[in-house]
Amino acid sequence: MDYAQDKEYNQTEKVKCASCGADMVFNPESQSLTCEHCGSVVEIKSEILEEENDFFADMNEDEWAKEALSYRCENCGAVTVLQVGEIAGNCPFCGASRVIAEQDQVGIKPSAIIPFAFDKTHAKEYYKKWIKKKLFAPSKLKKNFVADKVSGVYLPCWTYDAYTLSVYEGRLGEYYYVTVGSGKDRRTVRRTRWYRVYGEYVGDFDDVTIEASAKIDQSQYNKIAPFPTKEAYVYDSKYMAGFSAERYSTGIKEGFERAKGYMEANIRRGILSRYHADVVGYLNVKTSYKKVTYKYLLLPVWMCGFSYNKKRYGFLVNGKTGRTTGKTPVSPWRVLVATLLGLGALALLVYLCMNS
Fold it and tell me: Whole-prediction pTM value?
């Protein structure tokens, strides 16, 4: 049985319009719930998240299951989350229609959310502006771009705050130069003056962000980042009406280990900035982490796809800032022209150099 299409399996509460009884959806333009049937509007009380969660406290892995359902795509394996009562249609990642409900896979409830700031029409416009800047993209695509699949998905991430105290000791080197030999054998050589260092280093990290998606890797995330994490609202399911969310694939503890890698790299840079070191013999650092807090944050991303010359292409748009990334078709003629122009310029430069 296809649970994604089984209305009996997915009964209940949605936000119903008080005027006509239709389902309401979140409208990014007005930042409110809107009835697409009669036009009624319900305001959402927004509250900036101020207090974060204690990382070392017990976490309830099933707390979101009371108000949300997860769906697994049988085609690409993506796991997305919808509010209870909403029916999964196509997978927002690959477009497949075969999605199966898995209620026990919902996980920790988000603590914060950054709502979409614009609708899918504006997302397409951001891509049009982006692709026009691509030198090798076909002119036909730039003029007649049409996206045939646009899905608004909240991507999961963890953010971590921490105070750190590091104790370090190491051996650093500073270059100096001396002149040796005489006559024709006289020359300058570089030598290293080594010295030992030790001490303490205090760090204060705020909102170290780790993407937790199975479908979007860190490099893709970085291309549409940053997201204004300090402007995140306390999670409210109303912001998800009409949208879906990907379930995190990177757990909170694994996410913290990745965050520690980022923090430790910054700590090492901070320590080395205290000294004039041209080379590092070794630097041993032992760090303790205090007052570690986290938030499970949902980030708004428009996932879009289109066909060109019988091939599929996709792109991502930051649903808050409009920053865009993706793959584009390449025009062989534009590549050829650019190559010929480059060769011509090189030939001209060689000619001028030979005759100067």
Answer: 0.78
